[in-house]
Design a protein that fits this description.
Elements: E1 3-7, H1 12-24, E2 28-33, H2 37-47, E3 51-54, H3 60-66, E4 73-76, H4 77-85, E5 90-94, H5 102-110, E6 115-117, H6 121-137, E7 141-143, H7 146-154, E8 163-170, H8 180-183, H9 188-191, H10 201-209, H11 211-224, E9 231-236, E10 241-247, E11 252-256, H12 262-270, E12 292-293, H13 301-312, H14 316-332, H15 338-351, H16 360-377
Parallel strand pairs: 1-2, 1-5, 2-3, 3-4, 5-6, 6-7, 8-9
Antiparallel strand pairs: 8-10, 9-12, 10-11
């Protein structure tokens, strides 16, 4: 197996990636975190990578002091992330949260490294740039999201046959079936109480608003060369069917498993091999039912906005993603209400400048513009 560069090692996906690496003695070449110096130090001492990077440059000195008795090289900032992403002969696991994962992903691809992508915002914001870079470099872009891993696995036995439809499943989150009136007073604690998955705060809130499913739809368009109209979102409450593919003859191939992210993480690390996994095996004897439904886009407006954004193209997906990132941060900080997130995402599409064929620099400018719009909308400062 390749040596691993793990970007975002202290988050939920990062920690579960390290579980898989422990189970199979996978060598860690480099680790990175945003600002959790204490956890990064503990991980570095256990796995002894060659490099440790802290994205918050104000914490570089602290990390260097903590690891001074080791031979681990310490770097910081986006430059440091890009440097370890480009280390030769490595598989890069991108578990960074948000659009901050885009530039390091491009660095990895341009260096010829395969990427196990858990950072969906990379493709949401810079889909064309990323896929063009993948084609030029000839690297593998391996999905880590459970839904996209499921689709990827379903397509492994397709023998060149084209799919007619992708069935992207959703748990529905903690508020499935609720109306706008019932969501008006939702608290942070309620929104973070996901019924099936243990995830980081940002993705858990995205699941509660269904923005996560909108982002996944956009990601699937780029990963699998699908038209938005070919992707059907189905609520599968038990999170047992992780997604499915329908072929032209009407046959549907689905991937099932327990609600444990270590399954898709491991497949992305060991592909094309399948090895024993530390995750719990799915037991059909324990299943009482599989239930299905349709998402309510009138209540969960983030999903509808994501669909409009990918149809519009250009920097529109970047606009809604960055507006959402800002609004979710404000909600988690207690500065806006739950339903304000959807309002901000919807309005951003018409309020932030549209660019049909954005460059990387224009996407980064879009990020700033979307953040400014959301802050201004609510009369807040950064």
């Amino acid at each position: 197996m390749d040596k691993i560069v793990l970007l975002g090692s202290t988050g939920s996906i990062g920690k579960q990636t390290l579980d898989v690496c422990r189970a199979h003695n996978i060598v860690i070449k480099a680790l990175s975190a945003n600002s959790d110096v204490e956890t990064l130090e503990a991980q570095a001492r256990e796995f002894l990578p060659e490099y440790a990077v802290i994205a918050d440059e104000t914490l570089v000195k602290d990390l260097k002091t903590r690891l001074a008795d080791t031979e681990i090289k310490v770097h910081g900032g986006e430059k440091g992330l890009c440097e370890i992403a480009a280390l030769p002969g490595c598989r890069v696991v991108n578990a960074i949260v948000g659009m901050a994962g885009l530039v390091p992903t491009l660095s990895a691809i341009r260096a010829g490294n395969d990427v196990a992508l858990a950072n969906k915002e990379t493709l949401v914001t810079g889909g064309k740039l990323v896929m063009d870079a993948v084609e030029r470099s000839g690297v593998k872009l391996l999905p880590v999201d459970s839904e996209h891993s499921a689709i990827f696995q379903c397509l492994q036995g397709a023998a060149g046959n084209k799919f007619s439809k992708i069935i992207l499943t959703a748990s529905g989150g903690p508020f499935y079936g609720k109306n706008l009136g019932e969501l008006a007073g939702v608290t942070k604690e309620q929104a973070l109480a996901h019924p099936n998955w243990a995830m980081g705060e940002k993705i858990t809130i995205d699941s509660a608003t269904l923005m996560n499913k909108g982002l996944e739809l956009i990601e699937a368009v780029w990963l699998f060369g699908a038209e938005p109209s070919q992707i059907q979102i189905v609520v599968q409450r038990e999170s047992v069917i992780h997604s499915a593919v329908e072929f032209e003859d009407g046959a549907i191939i689905a991937q099932l498993g327990s609600a444990d992210m270590r399954l898709p993480i491991q497949y992305a690390l060991t592909y094309p091999e399948r090895l024993d996994c530390p995750a719990k095996k799915l037991s059909f004897e324990d299943l009482s039912a599989l239930t299905f439904g349709t998402p309510d886009e009138k209540t969960f407006v983030c999903l509808a906005a994501a669909k409009r954004a990918i149809e519009k193209g250009g920097n529109a997906p970047c606009i809604i993603n960055c507006a959402n990132e800002t609004a979710v941060r404000l909600f988690l900080d207690g500065r806006i209400r739950f339903l304000d997130i959807g309002d901000a995402v919807e309005e951003s599409l018409s309020e932030v400048k549209f660019i049909a064929n954005p460059t990387l620099y224009e996407l980064l400018d879009t990020q700033k513009s979307a953040e400014k719009f959301v802050l201004t909308k609510f009369g807040l400062s950064k």
